[in-house]
Amino acid sequence: MATKAEKERDARIAARQQEAKKKKDEKAAKEEIAIGHDIEAGVAIKAGANFVDESEFAIMGALPTLYIDNKGDIPVPVICGVGTLADCLKRRKEGASILRIRQTSAVRADATVVTLNNIDNELKKYQGNAVLREMWLEMHGLEEADFAFLKDAEDISPLRIYAYGGICTPRDVALMMHMHCAGVFVDNSVFTSDNPRKRLKAMARAVERYDDIDEIIKLSIGTAERM
């Protein structure tokens, strides 16, 4: 019997199929699928999804954590959540196009910050100790070649991680960019705020101007309240 989460996901997919029939020029859409469920990925793509997200929140019974290992064969970009440096390297090796911070319970910006710091600390730890790195790589089923592009990295920038979780103000965006994220996923609460268009524009601008504190102050006028 289908779970509540599966029924809700099926309803979203069915709704998108109806929309696709009505509109040829469909805007970019991201569909969440259960981790490791390549059939759901195929269904989502048929329904018009431009991205698929192997989501920790799209739960399918007691399915073990088995990620789709041939992501490069999927015709749209695949998004994956990561919580450790090993996660980042494994998902890249599988062919993930976009890495985002994984959320384990409540979707919160402070949890995103903690995870980014932890990944950065792991990177520095294994960069500086070849023996320890070799043991760590072997433990996670990885090879030195998987780590090679990070050997001289000053921070996590080469991993191109997107911040995800509770990001709803221009200040949040600026913080994530300062932490060397490649970009951000805005929190769903933004779309139900008093003026979502204004807030979204301000947050998009903050991605480009995160180093300009005066600009961030201006962008925060009327958009600094947390949801």
Automatic annotation (TrEMBL):
EC id: 4.3.3.6
The PdxS/SNZ N-terminal domain, residue ranges: 33-127
Chain intervals for the UniProt region annotation (Disordered): 1-28
EC top class named in words: lyase
Pathway: Cofactor biosynthesis; pyridoxal 5'-phosphate biosynthesis
Domain of life of the organism encoding this protein: Eukaryota
GO process annotations (BP): amino acid metabolic process; pyridoxal phosphate biosynthetic process; pyridoxine biosynthetic process
Catalytic activity: aldehydo-D-ribose 5-phosphate + D-glyceraldehyde 3-phosphate + L-glutamine = pyridoxal 5'-phosphate + L-glutamate + phosphate + 3 H2O + H(+)
Keywords: Lyase, Pyridoxal phosphate, Schiff base
Family recorded in the similarity comment: Belongs to the PdxS/SNZ family.
Protein name: pyridoxal 5'-phosphate synthase (glutamine hydrolyzing)
Lineage: Eukaryota, Fungi, Fungi incertae sedis, Zoopagomycota, Kickxellomycotina
